[in-house]
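Field reference: sequence -> structure
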Amino acid sequence: MKKYFDLKVPILFLSIFLLSSIVLIIKMNSGDECNIKEFQVDAPSFKVGELIIFSDASKKSHSWRWYFGDNTQISFRSKVAHSFMEEGEYLVKLIVNNECTIQKVITILPKENSLDKSKFPKFRVPGNVMQDEEVEFVDRTDGAKSWEWRFGESGKVDSFDEKCTYVFTTPGKKVVSLVVNNDYKHVTIKELFVIPKKKEVVKVEKYKSVIPWNPFKNVPDAPPEEEKDDVVKVVKGPEIGGTDARKLEDILESVAKGKTNYESFLKHFCKYNLPIVIYKDAKTSSLKEFFYAVKKKGDKVKNVTIQKDGEDCIRVINIDKKHKSYF
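Structure field:
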């Protein structure tokens, strides 16, 4: 019996196999078909300057491109951190596997306590001025209606005028601050240096033969007055010699560690001429208040500058931190 072989049958099966293979390959290549609907965004708050975490946890993803809508560089990781430097709405776009595109609008809020630079008072100060000479200060802030000038010597408001003059009575670095329209968030602080005035040299003529007539020559001297208790003498502490800014920093470090009490601390100052403490924001405090604030805070005090008088007494201590850092 003769068997008949139909060639069409294997051709049909081969065609079905090839067609199935093609369909399978297409499906495999389209496995990146966009099944990703969103990406994750994590942040404690969406404010200017704060880091925001963007991530994609989808399966079978092998490439990523992040566009943040703020003209910054593209990121190519599945998880990235980004911060926006200005408030507003940003369209964040993610392209996965070069095919799938997901977009989301992120709203960035203003940073808390962010300050408007245009609201800071505008005035100029000279770099150096002479002690006991009059210096003029003028505010040039648009829309200013009230003023508070502080010149770093009195510890209080020195002038309420738009244009004022001031005489610095002690030499050294001074902090000048200005507040306008009672806006204490926007305070302009500038520094200047007061140059000590030159001591006048009195020339005495030698061998002067003519003695001027003294109308009080025959008037008896008044009896000497008894020393009064209210006369203040300069009483120097036993450790005052050689106390400079660096040594004062070491002493304050000892105070912060609780190794120096207030009585020992006072040995480095003149008893009846204790210095005033001026902070970076032009606020002031007494020496005793500053001592206990340093002791309580327990931190090392750095960048201290001092001003002394002719008796070698420390009269001013300048602290390179704001008043609220201690109180």
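Note: The helical segments are 8-29, 245-256, 262-266, 287-297.
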